[in-house]
Design brief:
Length: 177
């Protein structure tokens, strides 16, 4: 397992890639969808921010506040493979469009940029806490099994990396290079 500081550095690099790419899109391109059931690139950004702020950060905080709970619980086979590889399996995950999962169109590129930039100091703020986190404090991930605070922290970069493939498909659709 990577140290939290190495995980932070890699995740920060990935966030910077997404931030640098924001300028490639016009406001119209940022919201254009390839089809009614597909997401716009703006919705992908929105998904990454919301998943980090609400799911990942929330689970990290929960793990940090526990007291040795779920020590015997483990990752499932998909979780073990993902963490061994350091990334999600390169498969397209299709879920039915639902209000709770499908992100809304973002307010603006500027709003997305500010919120994404704000993730970096929040990520950094977890570093001292992760150094002493109890690895037996785990919460359930819906697809990967039980994860501890450091594994939830790692998943943030894995998630940003995973969506680069989707970004590439959308960039092709939008004619952005």
């Amino acid at each position: 397992m990577k140290s939290p500081s190495k995980t932070y550095s890699r995740t920060e690099e990935l966030i910077e890639i997404w931030l640098e790419n924001l300028s490639k899109y016009t406001d119209e391109q940022f919201l254009r969808k390839p089809s009614e059931e597909s997401w716009s690139i703006g919705q992908v950004y929105e998904h990454l921010i919301r998943a980090t702020e609400f799911l990942h950060f929330g689970q990290i905080k929960q793990c940090l506040q526990m007291n040795g709970s779920n020590a015997t619980e483990e990752k499932n086979i998909k979780g073990k493979i993902s963490y061994t590889l350091g990334m999600f399996l390169p498969v397209k995950i299709k879920v039915p469009p639902t209000p709770g999962y499908t992100p809304p169109q973002p307010k603006s590129k500027k709003d997305v940029e500010e919120r994404m930039k704000n993730l970096i100091p929040q990520l950094k703020g977890f570093l001292p806490l992760l150094e002493t986190a109890n690895p037996n404090n785990k919460t359930a991930h819906p697809g990967l099994g039980y994860l501890n605070a450091h594994e939830w922290y790692q998943i943030i970069g894995m998630h940003f990396h995973h969506h680069l493939r989707q970004k590439s498909r959308l960039d092709k659709f939008l004619g952005v290079h």
